[in-house]
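name: query_chain
kind: protein
chains: 1
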Amino acid sequence: MIRRLAPAYAVTGLTLAIASAIGAVGLRLVDPVPMLENTFGFSDAALLGFECFGVMFAAVGGLLVVRRPWNSVGWLMVFGGVAHAGGGLGTAVTSSALADGPTGAATGAFAAWVTLACVSLGASVFVLAVIFPTGRGHTPRWHRVARLYLFVLAVLTALLLTQPGPLNTFPAVDNPFPIGPQWTVAGMPLSVVVTSASVVIGPTFALAIASRYRTSDSVGRRQLKWFILPMLVTIGALTIALVTPLATDDPPEVGLALFGFGGALIAVAIGIAILRHGLYDIDRLLSRTISYGIVTGVLVATFTIAVVGLSSVLGSVAAGNSLAVALATLLVAALSGPLRRRAQATIDRRFDRARYDATITIDTLTTRLRDDVAIERVEADVVGMVERTFHPAGAALWLRPRSGHGTDLVTIHGRTPDTVGPT
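structure:
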């Protein structure tokens, strides 16, 4: 039954997501009215990022549904992708309708209500942190956590959609279907409680990933690394979105747009991890991402502190601020190389251990060969290093004879290649 429903579900979900994306972007191009005030600070660029998020999730999720119909990851990705794309379309319709004044008030209110439903239900994709890549929690307890999260999300969505007063996503729009009471928890509005819950949900899902990683085999760990890599990019974009309003008066347009495109990368990584988990060297990609992220953060912090400190010291000097910026730039340039090498070595020891061990082995061998003149020990060291580093099917060493003609073959441990040729 599930296998028969899978193609229809995948095609329907992808069609809805693409139609929503085209509708949202097309409406903003045809009717570029000011974006209605909303909780997330959406702008046109952010809207485009989230539409990309929705389409990519629906596309990759549909592929997984067809290829792995018994894995709930694909089904949830399609649902979440349609919800995100639909939320973007609802945002565009709400802004355009309410810009028409009283004539579009009813349409705008309904579109805002639909947007709240889509945004709330779209949060179901966060449970992927618990069920990826198998479609279930890795222990019965974590599987119950995933089910509890989805149940609570459904209940909270129903309460938000039925309580009177302003809608959670659009404070300027009242709920057109107020059939329930005004819910509060400990004297706080329900919308505030829902927003504050992310403080608990985020660390819980991070703990789920760490717990699954510890108990997984080598294949499962590589799959999780594909999931973690774009998550780091997305978290960085979300950090930009949170910091931008604090540092400037501008809305978090760039950060939210990057967050949407980063979410699209998560969908791609999930598809690769489940369908072709061994396709690329994920250890090296992950170590590079983490190391460069750390280096960038440290250099930015160093530059900021240096500019502030030097500006205060050189404030009495003419063009003191320009001099402070120049000195801070020189300091960052001097630190970038040593800091990158140090961070890369530290991260490689944890995330790219094979390459780190190979580098140490080659460096050690180079030092020994520089001082060793015994040909037997050289032969053993070279072939032994190759075997430990690359694990070949055969290992042998070719030496050029002193006469300069032909090739001598020295076999170590009886492991000889099938063919022998000149070096």
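note: The first strand starts at residue 184 and ends at 185.
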